[in-house]
Amino acid sequence: MTALPQHRATEAQQLALQSWIRRTGTTAIFLITTAVSILLALVFGTDIWRIALAGILLVILIACLALIIVSATSFFRDDS
Q: CA spacing 20 to 30 A to 25: which of 15, 36, 55, 75?
């Protein structure tokens, strides 16, 4: 019986890390876009609907940040 090569686990870990970075990067771009739209809505308009939309987007932004933090802590947690 032949043992599996040791480098397979390392490759799997690297692929998992790359996948996590890709997802986090996409989420970060979304969050930056949301933050910019909130700032533009607050700076260039005093319309109540724009402020309400900015508030909703801010709640979504905070929720996404919380999900990133939870995802990061679960990814880097040592299960052994």
A: 55
